[in-house]
Amino acid sequence: EDKVVQSPLSLVVHEGDTVTLNCSYEVTNFRSLLWYKQEKKAPTFLFMLTSSGIEKKSGRLSSILDKKELSSILNITATQTGDSAIYLCAVAGGRGGATNKLIFGTGTLLAVQP
Amino acid sequence: DGGITQSPKYLFRKEGQNVTLSCEQNLNHDAMYWYRQDPGQGLRLIYYSQIVNDFQKGDIAEGYSVSREKKESFPLTVTSAQKNPTAFYLCASSPLMNTEAFFGQGTRLTVV
Predict the structure, then answer these.
(1) Strand B10-13, strand B107-111: pairing
(2) Tens of pLDDT along B59-91?
(3) CA-based nearest distance A48→chain B, Å
């Protein structure tokens, strides 16, 4: 069964801390890995990774994919209270005829305290 | 403005009723998806569609039905066969499968 596992499930840090969120996957016909941030309702897109070892970076956020280890990390440096959210990892792929679906992990709930 | 619109934001359903959740996008995206989100379980795929008049079951399709008669629209019907329909439902679209998906604001369905 295809699955995506995120860790930790929840995390509480103070402003200015650096955090690392983890995503591991077992998905047949892997195509890409995506990170989303969900604050209240609609998840918003952060990164899409398709090649191993290449770092995607946007301001204080960065992410790397390790296809050998079937995992990815999302780093947030100098955290701010506005970073508080659920961070979702999704993998595009799937078995059989359904090779084109996004499979989501349970998410990591990040709380940044002032 | 281009985007993806879900309605209603909140929906209450009596047991035994069918209800339909609307999802419309004006992004000219080919692919559309429906997800269900329960606390602690992330997003689970209900149905997805790559082109008009075609759709595929996701992981938890039982008790749900969809149609894709127009490129812009992908409504989801929650039937009385769905035993535990109370959840947050998210619709998404993407230009092609396996690319960045854009989400609507969601519909929170409650059975009363």
Answers:
(1) parallel
(2) 899 999 999 999 999 999 999 888 889 999 999
(3) 7
